[in-house]
Structure formats: structure tokens, C-alpha cells
Amino acid sequence: MVKPLCILVGCGPGLGLSLVRRFHVGGFKVAAISRDERRCQSVLSRVGGSPAGLKALAADAGDAAALNDALDRAVAWGAVQPNVVIYNAAAMSETRASGLGPSLFDDLKVTVGGAVTLATFAAKAMKQAGEGTILFTGGGLSLEPHPDWAALGMGKAALRNYAYSLHRELREAGVNVCIVTVCGIIKPDSDFDPDKIGEVYWGARAAPSDSWREEIVYMPGGDRFYNRAG
Fold it and tell me: Which domains are present in the chain?
């Protein structure tokens, strides 16, 4: 029996590791894509369980051609079209709004462009199948900007808008699209423990169609203005 396939773009030792582990434990083969294949393989080695259901692949999320090639290789390895795709990559540039320049567009290629590449790749097969899930990692900066992270905030705001549009387009085709907006710093053994957040993604995937949401805002503290300077 062929296991369902989850493709994760953006696999680090925090939330990426927790997402791989949760979906692997849930019965999925997981192909994880990051810029550094060796680092990605190191993350996967910490998942536990059978390594046969895990695959590390390298691609720059901001390079559409490279990412599409990695996605093709993930599907070939999984021997099935993806049932779930998760975009968890972002350009983490600490830049104030007044200091933004042309490098902003390189950041947006990663934070937003890669998400579009992944979703476009997955949506065609999912629409044909009449099922599938596309999940994005959003951020509180899209709701409450911080002056030190202007480029990242712009990217996350654009990603949020894209996720809403895609949700409304694909819902009638049976495809579940949701952005998980994490409003805080991800840290083990806290309200923002990555394993706790991973359960939110799993719950979004498993939700019945009449409960699908464009966005899940993960904000345990309930402080809408936690990024407000001063």
C-alpha cells in the first residue's frame, strides 16, 4: 500500500522538525526541502521511527526552477501526488522600513514566491483528485508589524492575502487551503512550543470540509498588539 505524501518546504530544527515528526507519526511519507540538504538530513535524523519514510532534498525556495525540480523529485520518491504540502520558508531579514532597498524583492521571492510555486505545483493534481491540503506558515507580523522586521512583515502580509485568495478559489474543488499565523516566538517548553504548533497544522489537515478556515491565528497569550513598539 502506498502511503500518502506530505511535502514540506522549509525544514529547520524548530517548527520544521515538529511538522515532519507529526505527519510522519500520522502515517505520511514526508519529503522535506531546504536550501542545505545536509542540514535537512540532520533534522530528519532527529525525527525517530523508520527513516524509510523520510527524504531530504535541496532547493532554494526563492528559485522557482530549482524548487519545481525538487518537487518533481519528491513526487517521484513518494510514488504518489502530494496529499499535503506545507510552506514553512521565509527570508529572515532584519530591516527597517526606511532602509528597504532592492534586496526586498529577493526576500519576497522566498517568503511569498516559493509559496506560490509550491501551491501552483500541488493545486493542479489536487483539483483533479478533488482533495488535498495546502498549508502555509504565517506570522504575527502580518497582523501587527514591527519596525525592525519590515521586509518579513511585508512578505507575511502578502502571503496571508494569497492564502485567503487561494482558499476561496480552491475550496469548491475540494482542496483545503489554510494559513497558520503564529503570533509569537517559537520556543520549546513554552506556549509556542513547536510540537504544540505542529498539532495545529495536523488539526487543520484533518478538519471536515464544513470546518475549513482561511486562517488559524495561533496566539495563546491573546495579545493582539504584542509587536507594538513602545
Answer: 5-218 (3.40.50.720)
